Structure formats: C-alpha cells, structure tokens
Amino acid sequence: MSKLSVLNDARVETVLARLHTEASKQLGALILHYLPKLPGLFLGKGIQWDQTKTEFYNDKYIPIEPNQGEFLYLIARAINAKTIVEFGTSFGISTIYLATAVRDNDGGIVIGTEIVHEKVVQARKNVAEAGLQTYVDIREGDALETLKTFNQTVDFVLIDGWTHLALDVLKILDPLIRPGGIVISDNVNTFKDSLKTYVEFLQNPANGYRSSTLNLKGGTEFSIKVKEAS
C-alpha cells in the first residue's frame, strides 16, 4: 500500500499490504491454471468459467487490486454508504476497503458472503486485525440462501463471486438497492461470456440502471440504480 493511500489508516494499510503480498505470491499458480483458456481471452470472449471445477479456488485470493480497492472506498464515501453487500468475500481484502469506508461514514455494516469455510474463518481474522469487526457481518454459505431473508435498504453492492450466480444474487438484492445506489462488478471482461447476461441486465435501462464498463483490472462494471425496474 502507498503511504499516500486515501484510507489514511496505518493499521488498515498494514493488513492490506500483507494480504495483497500474499495474493501476489499465487500469481504463478493462477497463470498456469488459466493458460489453456487464454486464447478465448485474446479473442475477446474472455475466460470460460467452469462451475464444476471450483475447488482450485478454495485457497486462492483472486482479489481486487489496490487501485480498485481505493476506488471502492472513494465511491462508498461519496454516496455516504451505510449498508454494503458483497458477493464473494474470499479472504476479506475488498471487505476491509468497504468497511473502512463505512466506518469513516460514521457507521454502518458490510454484509459479506462466502461459501468456503476456511476463507470465512480467515477473513474474519483479517477484518479483526484491521480493527473493523464492528462494521462487518460475513455470512457463511450459499449467497442465494444467506441473502434470501435480507431486507435492509442497500446503498452499495460489490459483485465478485462465482460468475454463474452473479445475476441471481443481483436479482435478490435489486429490490433493496436504493435509487442512487451503486453496483460494482469485477472481472466482466475476464469472464466476458460467462457474465454476458449479467452485464446485459445492468446495461438495459428498462431494468433501472445506468451502467458502463471501466478499464480497471479485468473490466469493472460501474452501475447506478436510477429507478425501479419497469
């Protein structure tokens, strides 16, 4: 993390620096894993997501990058987000950026979702190490179940979990996202075909959003809820 980080919190930045460093050490394994799938990426179709072979990811970070994290923090601060929902917590890197924003907005909650038990345990430890546990509730299990009864107004959503579930998760949350609420979606170009229907939903004005793909990491979809779906 840069000394000029917008987070302005040495304790948080120290934890994030460690986590980003640990994630970087996994790059070799990730490159080898994706190597046979790279032609699709070069052809503009993205990497094909195989939902039957998810075990490889059980110990992998695959996190947002520091510039994305600071972007999330700034957007959450700009809209004074109090309730944030995150699909795909993993080891808690994005959770920490978002929880820092909620804390700096004078309080609120980040609802995290993660299906891998070991990641849930470690993410909770990382959040606590950053001193942010008061602002985080990580729900263990299938997000389609753990979010089913969630009924709070939502200011901000981060979609960064299994691509085949992205649209289903968004549709659970959609009625709760307030006008002016933000949805950020990671890797929409990396998994272009897998997320095609999801992105089309967000980019169709009839569904109540205005949305654009930003050139951050593997494509970051930036969407604003402007009205109830027609």
Number of strands: 7
CA radius of gyration: 17 Å
Strand order of the largest sheet: 3-2-1-4-5-7-6
Strand residue percentage: 15-25%
Provide mean pLDDT, rounded. Answer: 89
Number of helices: 9
Largest sheet at a glance? 7 strands, mixed
Going by CATH, the homologous superfamily would be: Vaccinia Virus protein VP39
| SSE string, helices as H and strands as E | HHHHEHEHEHEHEHEE
CATH class designation: Alpha Beta
Helicity range of the residues?
25-40%
Overall shape: it is: globular
Based on the coordinates given, report the CATH architecture: 3-Layer(aba) Sandwich
Q: Ranges with pLDDT <50 over ≥5 residues?
A: none
Model description:
- The chain has 230 residues and is an alpha/beta fold.
- The chain has one domain: Rossmann fold (3-Layer(aba) Sandwich), CATH 3.40.50.
- 37% of the residues lie in helices and 19% in strands.
- It contains nine helices and seven strands.
- It has helices at residues 10-24, 27-34, 38-42, 66-78, 93-104, 117-129, 143-146, 166-173, 196-203, and strands at residues 83-87, 109-114, 136-140, 154-159, 177-185, 209-214, 220-225.
- A seven-stranded mixed sheet has the order 3-2-1-4-5-7-6, sandwiched between helices.
- Helix 5 links the parallel strand 1 (83-87) and strand 2.
- The longest helix has 15 residues, at 10-24.
- The protein starts with 9 loop residues before the first helix and ends in a 5-residue tail after the last strand.
- The model has no long low-confidence stretch (mean pLDDT 89).
